[in-house]
Each structure stands twice: as C-alpha cells, then as structure tokens.
Amino acid sequence: MKFVKDVFGGVVFFGLLASVLPYLTEAAIGSRCAPPIVHPDRDLAGLALLAEPALAATGAGPGRADFDTRWHDGKAELNGYRLTVERYGHPRIGRAVLIYVTEPFSRSKHVKVDDPSKNPADTFDALKLNLVRHFQTGIYDYSTMVSLFTRSSDFVPVKATFTSAEWCGQVYEELNFDGARLAERFFSYFENESSEQTLPAPADGVVEDNLFILLRGLREDFLAPGQKRSVPFLASAFYRRLTHQTLAWSTATIERLSGSEMVRVPAGTFEAWVYVVKPADGREGRFFIEREDPHRVLRWAWVPPPKAATGRPHVLGGTDSGDLTGSSRLQYWKLHDQGDEKYLEALGLQPAVM
User: Where are the domains of the chain?
Assistant: First the structure.
C-alpha cells in the first residue's frame, strides 16, 4: 500500500512539475527587458484589458483585433536601417535599429511594470519604441538612443528618454507627459546645459520621434490620402542635441500625399504611402510607409533648413535619413549567446564590434 501511495504521489508531483515547467523555463531564460510572457490561448485578452479602460471595455477602435494579435505575441519587431547623418558638413554613414514592443507600464511611476497583477489599476499597456543610432565622425563615434513610451490604445506619448555618448561626454534627457504638462530633466557634460523645466503639453501636440509610430497607422490612418494637418510640434531630442537647441514647442504641417510610390531600399522594393513633414524650423522630412501590413517605415529622410531660415551654416548638421535593410520579429532579449549574432542577418546588419 505504501508503494502505491509513493507511486501515486510521484505521479502527482511530476504532473504538477510538468504543468509549471514551461513557466519556470521561460522565467529562467528571460530577462528584465522582456515583455510579460504571453500565452495566446489564455493571456491575450488579459493583456488587451491593460489598455485604456474605455477602449478595452467596448472593444472599440479601428483594427484593434489585428493590433492585439500582432503586438501581444510576446515578440518585438526589429527593423534595421542604413543610416546617414549630416554632421560637421559631411554625410556620416552608420546604422540604426527601430525596436517596437508592447509592455505593461506604470501610470504613477512611469516605468515598466514587473508584475502587472500587483497593481492593475496603476498599469496600462504601452507600445515602446527604441530608436538606436550609431555613426562615425572621424576618429570618434556617436551612440544615441531614444526610448518612447506611448499608450497602445491611442499612441499618446507618456514618457521619452534620450541618451547620447561620444568621446567628449554623455547627455541624458527625460520627458514625462502628465496630462496638460510636460516635465523635462536634462543632464549634460557641458556647463550651463543641465536643467529642469515644465512646459505645457498641447492635447494635439506631436512629438517628432512619435512619427515613427503615428504614421504607420497601426490602428487607423493618421491622415487620409491628400489630407494635411497643422499641429504643435516638438523637435526630436536627437536633432536638438546635435544642433544644441533647447526644448520648446513650435508648429509643423503634416501632409499625406494622395497617391502611393514604389520605393526601393536594401530590404527590397515596396509600395509606400508618403508623408511630408514641415516643421517651423525650416526642415522638411519625408516618411515612406509600407502600404501593406505591417506598415513598416521603409525610409525616412530629413532635409536641413535653408541657411536663410537659420542665419547660420549647417556645420553642426543634425538631419538624418534611414533606408530599411531588413526586419524580423524575435524575442531578442533571449538571443545573447555566442553565435546569436547570426540573427542580425535578417535585419541586414553586421555585429557592431567584430
């Protein structure tokens, strides 16, 4: 009888172990940058409810089902680009990566949430964009990164951070959006640049880095073909850093051209929507958005303002362009072993350090 009990107990134990082993394995091999573990058969609805309550409760919103199916699959979208940056009077060739991923975010702390179940009322679903640029200027190189956190229900920005590192020093900027106000903290190695300030945040304002999300039309088109809109506009931290400009709202017009164009980039030839962005600072940007799902940014290209608009030559530069070299959907936070560099091939990239 004791033997039967021992066998039965062992079966129960190993049965329970088998039922939780996938979770233990995923937790053990994951990392803190990973999104929550998603099991589509039971977790997708729960993650969707982390979105803004009004949208989640009604199921409203164009393309919601498609968005949740794609963006709550436990993976990130990775897009590689051939980057060109105008700096010190010359075009500098480099590389860029756009990383899109959803993750739970804290309303009160403005950080990624480790365990959404502990305080669901304080947690919402965010679509995060990490934009990494790396380029050379003579003997030394620049490494910059933007992290933009938006509400996945409407892509309104909640937080944006920027870092820049080159041989002269480091810079860090943090923007926190709280309703009608925007708080900035800026830290620089230059004297008299570090500061803290609060600005108004217009309800219809557009943050330049958010163009990489908004123009993709992940839920609905930002503009209809042929439509134009004037908006309050906040220049990107990257452009402000390279041109040494302070944070300030201006205006911009954003226009979607009526037709589509065929665009050839290293990743292939695609039909694209075209958006033209004209900030008040005199720049002009064009964004070529893939017509077919998933509407990737195929190319972006900024033209510097004419000299007459700024009163100074474009020695500092600051405008950039990127051509898509490749894409993939991966749990990249798990790909850190020797040999995992091979996954860069799908992005059209080589390891940064050989």
Answer: 1-30, 31-347
pLDDT at residue 145, as a whole number: 98
The tens digit of pLDDT for each residue in 246-261 reads 999 999 999 999 999 9
| Alpha-carbon distance values, 196 to 24, 157, 182, 184, 187 (Å) | 43, 19, 11, 6, 9
Q: Given the structure tokens 């099991």, which residue do they identify?
A: 39
Q: What are the pLDDT digits (tens) for 208-232?
A: 999 999 999 999 999 999 999 999 9
Distance separating alpha carbons of residues 62 and 219, to the nearest angstrom: 5
> CA–CA separation, 80 vs 190, rounded Å?
32
Furthest C-alpha separation in the chain: 95
What pTM value is reported for the model? 0.84
How much is the pLDDT for 353? 79
- Other residues' Cβ atoms within 10 Å of the Cβ of residue 96: 25
